[in-house]
Task: structure prediction
Amino acid sequence: MKILFILLLAASTLSAKLNVAAAYPYIKELTKEIGQDKVAITLLSQGNWDPHFVVPKPSLIAHLRNSDLLILNGASLEAGWLSPLLDSANNPNIQENAKGYLELSDYMDLQDIPKNVNRSMGHVHAEGNPHFILDPHNVIKLAKVISLKLSLLDPANQGFYQKNFEAFKAAWEKKLVSFDKKMEACRGMNVIQYHELFNYFLRRYGINSVDNIEPLAGVSPNSKHTLELINTIKRKNIKLILQDVYHEHRTAHFIADKTGAKVVQLPHDVGAMKGTGTLEAFYTTLVNTVCR
Ligand SMILES: [Zn+2]
Result:
């Protein structure tokens, strides 16, 4: 009887999945690639939501209470919404600095780091621009970090995670070649965007983000700035206005009407728009919409 119990215990330990909470859809997709059937993933937000202001479902608290690992974007992207959820879950395993806590921004080279921060700059991203997932070249590094963390928490499956990472890396490198090739034709293009969501993507491919519809990060458009934008677009012959899915679209279309520039809607994460449900589809949509 005792032996049977030990056998059952061993079997249940072997088959137990790591419970992972992912702040954003791209984190879920990457974790799925590496963890596959060894992980059970809870997603805290949706791809078409404003990532700065997620309104999490209360039912997520129970999931967070049982999570072995929490993976965040970091660089304060979750600063406006995650703390109350973590406080309610009260799970020491996934608190900041615990073994089961991973902030991806710690492993990224952040851009747009402000030289000095004050209120006149709007709701600025004080640690730098947190939207690094927009550069498809960051994906392999993020997958590597996630594979190392899964291995740390579940060393018995280290070889499995390593193998999945290597396979993912090889496949993604091929995709990068095709993204890079396609984007080459658009180098030097000038665009306007709503919020500085797409900077990492645009810089990767040598596209200039001339100005934003927001006068300051996180501040709604005003008529003075909108009129300035109309002049800038005419003067610099800007053809494209990049609109995200969650801000109002009226200002972009108003500017387009006055200038002849074209408004295109872009996804900022996996699942933000129809047909962007995988990492590959997400970046393919970005590439094909910006550089057609
Ligand atoms: Zn932002």
Q: What stands out?
A: Residues 158-183 form the longest helix (26 residues). DSSP finds ten helices and eight strands in the chain. Residues 52, 125, 131, 195 surround zinc ion (CB under 6 Å).
